[in-house]
Every structure is written in structure tokens, then in C-alpha cells.
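Sample A.
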Amino acid sequence: MAASATIALLAILLRRADVLPVDRPNARSLHDRPTPRIGGLALFPGAVLGCLAAGLWDGDSVLLLGLAGFLFFLSIFDDWRSLPVKLRFGAHLLAAGLLAFGLMGSSMVALAAALAVAWMTNLFNFMDGANGLAGGMAAIGFAVFGLAFGAPNASYALTGAALGFLVFNFDPARVFLGDAGSIPLGFLAGGLGLLGVVKGQWPWWFPLLAFSPFVVDATVTLVRRALRRERVWTAHREHYYQRLVRMGWSHRRLALFEYVLMAACGISALTLLSAGQQFQVLGLSAWVVVYAGLMLFIDRCWARSAASRGDRA
């Protein structure tokens, strides 16, 4: 239901692409033609319809989807009018705080959880810069959540909606997520991850590992920019996935590579859930080594590529 609704809504919206928000190429873009950024206008409603069809309207689901809906409507205005950064981030923190304190009560742990959910809310926006990337990785990540939850849950509706969006977003993309898609998706990834921890479905590391291709790339990149005293909230092309495209990878090759990485992280996370604590520590340590090796390799390739072009590495 979620996939079908998303596909149908996007097909209708694209008939009026001339009056919809458009992402126009600029110096920081990886695409070379104007593309409507209205994927969220179909993806989030499609996921909600999927939840309605499955009867997923318990108290926690209503809280989670209601707050995501608040961010969805705010982000629609942002796609049209580009809202101030302080207003956007303030809304993200408000929604994350209401969710965390609503699920966990008032505590320092809940405050830390709220900050983590707010951070995850923005990760999808940071990583939505290549054809097929965020949509495909979202489908995999939410499917992993669904399998870990076991019983029917909103994760499956989000997987279906993401797959429906991917029909139009895989290279060559006809539509992008826009903030109305990436912000609610990021919030729901963080929110469902927190919900699973609160309900005892998984430990805190599980959602981090399941979505680690998002978390690691965005976090490391923005920390490095902050250390260089650059404005981390402004658009740029320094994420590792962006560097791969700038060094010659096609959008399709990048997306398929990231899908494999995301699936490997998801399978590993599901496997480690039933393993002993020692194996969990070993598995997580192995992923730290893998990511460190991947980043170091890309950094070296980027430095050689920049030197050959005469650019600053």
C-alpha cells in the first residue's frame, strides 16, 4: 500500500513539475539539470497510508508519526521559501525533545536521546545528494528495523514508501526527496531507533550500526569542517560519497556500492543481536576498523586527485 500510494502520488505530482520546487544545479551540486525536489510530498503520505492500512495506530506510533508530520509540513514551507536555519533546527530539537521525553520521561538520558534524534533528523538531508542514494539506503535501513521488531510496525510502511520513491529517484533521477522527504525520514529513523531501545527490542548500538553509512559519513565530515571553523550548516560537497562522484564514480555505481554497505551493516546488526556480548564488541570493533580503512582510502585517493588538478585537498 505504501509503495503503490507513493508511486501514484509522484506520478500525479510530476505532471505539474513546472510549478513545484526545483533543485537547480550550482557549484555545490552533483547533478547537472533542474530536478523537482518534491519526493517527500508523496513518500511521507504514502508511509502514513501504509500504516493506516496495517492498523498501526498505537500510542507510540501516533506520537512518532504525529511529530514527523509536524516536521513534514514545516519542511514543505522550507522547500518553497527556505526558512531560517535557527527556525528549522529549533523545530527539529522541539520534535526530538517531545519524542524523547514522551517515551523516557524527564532525565539526562532523555536529553541525550533527544539530541541524538535531532542529529539523525538532519543526516538524511546531508546525505540526500546523489541519485538513488538516500531512498535506497532508507529502504534497507527501515527493513532491518522491521525485521528486528518482528511484529508489523511502521518500519515496513517506510520501506515500501522508500521503494516507491526509488522508482523515480534511481539514476537518472526524475525527482529528489527535498526537505519534506529527508527531514521526516531522518526523524523517523532516529525515533524508531529510540523506540526500539525503550521497548527493549534492541540495544543502543543497533540503530547506529543499521544506519551507520549515514551516521559515519555525515558525522565525520561535519566534525572535520567544524574543526576547520567552517560553517557546518551551509551546503558543500565534502562528504565521502560526494568525493567519490567528483573523482569519477557514476551515481549508479555509488548507489549500488552504498546499498551493499548498508545491507552488510544491517545483516551484521541483526546477527549480532542474538550473539553474546563479547561477539557484539568484536563485531562493532570490526566495523570501526572497516570504516576507518574506507575513509583513509578515500582521503588518499582524494588527495592525489586534488593534487593532479592543482586543488586544495
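Sample B, a different protein:
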Amino acid sequence: MKVGFIGLGIMGRPMAHNLMKGGHSLYLFSRSGVPQDLVGEKGIACQSPKDVAKNAEIIITMVPDTPHVEAALFGKDGVAEGLSAGQIVVDMSSISPIETKKFAAQINKLGCEYVDAPVSGGEVGAKNAALTIMVGGTEATFAKVKPIFELMGKNITLVGGNGDGQTCKVANQIIVALTIEAVGEALLFASKAGADPAKVRQALMGGFASSKILEVHGERMIKRTFNPGFRIELHQKDLNLALSGARALQISLPNTATCQELFNACAAQGGSAWDHSAMVRALEMLAKHEINQK
């Protein structure tokens, strides 16, 4: 198929690469420029999102935040200006569920289908085509785009209608943030008490406390490898969606709020671009102790 891909950062670049490996021709656009390794037999650099939409059957956006999606779709030389009836727009960014429903309605008015399909799994999952993909859209459109998703992910679920994929992603980010905080507290406790945190992590990996966060981010905390990954500023954005949604729904998410404050503390130390596993640094500052491997 002819697939458009807009947004070629830490996540988008390997996702686009996997689509080309799957045999699809890609029409590419990124505000920072299209990486040269994606340009060739299967990858064609475009001048604008409008240019992408004019050439592709399915157009994917993978950009940082809600305003970036809106600009890519409806801004000057945006996707909407290049669409023809029958095309499919797929947003794989992590953005507001409320705005997603508005975007879908606008795309539908043009005679096109809209799918929200945010992902989880980080850079490693993107490179290994092992992402979890949470989908909002109609069953008929999902059936059309699922073969594309299968080249980028493993766990692919149609959650419900437009916006439900984004709602699922917000829920995912709540769990991830709280689990990072829990792993950080546990390894900090172990280290301060004099145990080897690496051995503690190894032991916990065989028990009920085992998790992907303990496996991947626990190792990052111990080895002090806080290059992203997934930047703290992006997780802050996702938790803002959770907390603003909670206010609208009149529910309390107290531990989500605590994790956001810990991220805020990291940002105050210049850590907005650290990997989100570096939340542990805020806990270490409170304890005046850094996790260290014996």
C-alpha cells in the first residue's frame, strides 16, 4: 500500500522503517526533516502533510502532543487540504481523547475515516515491532488498517469508538507512572538499607512483584542510563490529560498527582528530557541517597 507517515522522531522513525520492511511505499514528512536512511526505494520525502495526503491511501501521524496533531491535520498545508474521499487517517500519537473525537468528526465530514491508535512499548518496542496498539474506530476501518498495525505491534486491540484508544492510553500512562514510582521506592529502600539493588531486582523478577517496568526501568535506575527512551516531558503531558480528565469526571487520582509532582521536581532540575525512569532521581533527592550497585 501507499502509506503516509508524519512525525519521524524516536518512535516514528523505527515504526516507519518497519512498514517499509513490510513492503509498503511510504510518503514521509517530519518538521525536523526526513532522516536520510528512510529515503530510497520505499521512502519518499514530502514537502508538507498536504503532499503526504495527496499521495497516500492511509495517513499516519506520530507527533508529540494534541496541538501538533491539530497542526498536521488542519493547519496550513495540512493533511485535510490533500485528502480525497475514502482515505483513512490514523493518529498514533498520545493526545487528548476529547480533541480526538473532534478531529475524527472533522475528518469524517471530508468523507474519510479516522482511527486513533496510540501505542505503548517505547523505543525498544518500536524498533522490535512489538508495540501495544490501543485502537479507537469502527470495526470496518479497524479491519482495513490492522495489517499495517501488525507490522509495528504485537498486542493490537480495538477498544471502542473514536477517542477510546486515547482514553486507554491515558490509563496505560497512569499505570506506568505509578509502577515507575513503586520500583524507584523499592530499589531506593533496598540500596539505603545496604542490599545490592541489582540482586534485589533479580530476585524480585521471579516473584509477584515482577513487571516490565522492574525489568527495563529498574535496570536503568541501577545502571544510571537515563537517556530517553520516553522523555519525562512527554509523560508529564500524558498525566496532565489524566488529571484534567479526572477533574471533568469528578474523580480523584491522588497517586497520579504524586507522580506528576515527582516528574515536576525532575524538570526543575533540568530533567525534562531525561527518560521517565529518572523519576527515581526525585525520590533520591528526598532521601539524599543515590541507588548504587555493589
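Observation for Sample B: Residues 86 and 112 are 5 Å apart (CA to CA).
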